[in-house]
Amino acid sequence: MVEKEHMNLAMIGHIDHGKSTLLGRLLMDTGTIDPHTIEEYKKKADALGKATFEFAWVMDSLKDERERGITIDVAHQRFDTDKFYYTIVDCPGHRDFVKNMITGTSQADAAVLVVDAKDGIKEQTKEHVFLSRTLGVGQLIVAINKMDRVNYDEKRFGELKKDLLALLGTVGYKEEHLTFVPVSAYEGENIIKASEKMKWFDGPTFLAALDMMEMPDKPVDLPLRVPVQDVYTITGAGTVPVGRVETGRMRKDDKVLFNPAGITGEVKSIEMHHEEIPEALPGDNIGWNVRGISRTDIRRGDVCGHVDTPPTVADEFTAQIVVLQHPSAITVGYTPVFHCHTAQVASTIVEITKKLDPKSGATLEENPDFIKPGDAAIIKVKPTRPLVIERVKEIPQLGRFAIRDMGQTVAAGMVVDITPKP
To answer: Which of 313, 259, 251 is nearest to 276 (CA)?
Structure first.
């Protein structure tokens, strides 16, 4: 049997708009999860006074999450449609957990934005839309959920769709890359079969919309880049870094270099899902055994590439950012933590070059004194320690980042230019 194409799907949206319930319902209706499991959850949910949470618990397997009824970590679940096999990344909608959402979305080929039909667009809906765009998610399914709360009203669906198109348009999503689907996850309407209660809707079911996604081109022709997630020492094998291939391809016997460590070695073997593979391609989560390096030479946040096209280590870089939230204003000298691929490095804003109109990108002000939430800007940044980062035009997968401070995402951005370390 031919293995289906693999897609990573992120579930995003405001807390309590029903992301986990939609997912739980989808997994049950497609037979990925046994209905008996859901029945068990239902009993427990009722006992805890959390009725209607049974579907959400499919993904929220951490005990703490069940008791609080929110999604904390990024949970992964495999799921098949006729066309693809999806790894679903259930991204937390809760404010504290935006950091996990960033690591989740940066791996997504497509995303599902879940919006409550009654509550409409909320703060986090906006934040997640900004982030998914800045982090490079090109295709979006907009699931207008809880249609049962508005009596399956066509007019409400139309209004909300119009508002969402306007919001998505401001960050550059085009209507042809968006699919709007009205659903009731809890009632199971329009999930895998057309809803009798929404005869007015002639579009796809939620499941059919997932099959309409396009497979993104695998960036195999770009230079090899594998950000290191962890490093293990495995008896009999030696040093084994693990990570996801972002671009390029890796083969056995390749000569590789880890930056910023500057350590070189040779690939002895590559493993995926506990099986040895001859070559690794973009999207593959691998462990690779490297001859000539020890576990202490490299760490999370380092990036592996080929010796002849080494990953870029930035001395300084110029970036375009969107400020999402900050208690006051951002000025020169501000040193928050930049999260890029698997690296987290404190970096100083050494210059605010321009303030931009976030909708059009036009310059509003040269060298402004400060920037505040809602502003877009061009800034110059100096990392406090060596950081591998790439220009978004050359290697987009390593050219995007989030800026975090005080437990929240302050801004998201992309790298326009780099002054490499000599």
So the answer is: 251
Q: What is the dihedral of CA 152, 27, 110, 129, to 10 degrees?
A: 50
Report if residue 216 sits inside a domain: no
pLDDT higher than threshold 90 for residue 2: no
Tens digits of residue pLDDT in 191-240 = 999 999 999 999 999 999 999 998 877 889 999 999 998 898 887 778 89
Tell me if 367 sits within 8 A of 132, measured CB to CB: no
**Are 288 and 234 in the same domain?**
yes
355 within some domain: yes
Full domain range(s) for residue 289: 226-306
Give the 3-state DSSP-derived string for 170-206, with helices as H, strands as E and coil as C. Answer: HCCCCHHHEEEEECECCCCECCCCCCHHHCCCCCCCH
Q: What integer is the mean pLDDT of 403-416?
A: 85
**Number of domains present in the structure of the chain:** 3
> Is 19 in contact with 111 (CB distance < 8 Å)?
no
Quickly state the pLDDT bin for 66 (edges 50, 70, 90): very low
Q: How far apart are CA 258 and CA 249, in angstroms?
A: 15
Question: Same domain, yes or no, for 285 and 333?
Answer: no
